[in-house]
Amino acid sequence: MRMKKKYTNAEKISIVKEGAKQGVKTTLEKYGLYPATYYYWKKKYDSMGDAGMDHGMTKERLQEIQRLQKENAMLKQIIAEKELEVRLQQDLIKKKYR
Questions:
Q1: Cβ distance 17 to 10 under 8 Å?
Q2: Following DSSP, what letter does each residue of 27-53 receive, concatenated?
Q3: From the CB of residue 57, how many other CB atoms can be counted at a distance below 10 Å?
Q4: Separation CA 50–CA 11 (nearest Å)
């Protein structure tokens, strides 16, 4: 009977990579994993990379996160430009009314 163990995301990634290098059968025996578990991790890792190993992560969710990160970066850039604009205007006003 196999012992149920929780693996961290880093451990899962390491096991998937080890399986690719040293052979799946050897790796499964070493860690006492079921083939279905290994191939599930491998599928998630292959399709989404490191982020795919997070619990509940799907391709759609990962795409939404990436879209929001791009939007956030764009908004930060806009704010920085507006702040620069305001500072330049304030400097011009100070020079004009001295």
A1: no
A2: HHHHHT--HHHHHHHHHHHHHHGGGGG
A3: 15
A4: 11
CB 44 within 8 A of CB 53: yes
Whether the full predicted model's pTM is greater than 0.85, yes or no, is no
Residue owning tokens 């578990």: 37
Mean pLDDT, the chain, integer? 88
Assess contact for 48 and 29: CB atoms under 8 A.
no
For residue 31, give every residue at least 6 positions away whose Cβ sits within 8 Å of its Cβ, in sequence order, or none. Answer: 15
Q: Give 93's pLDDT tier (boundaries 50, 70, 90).
A: confident
The per-residue pLDDT for 3 is 61
Query: Could you give the CA distance from residue 91 to residue 71 in angstroms, rounded to a whole number?
Result: 30
How many angstroms separate the first and last alpha carbons of the chain? 85
pLDDT at 61 > cutoff 90: no
| Beta carbons of 28 and 19 less than 8 angstroms apart | yes
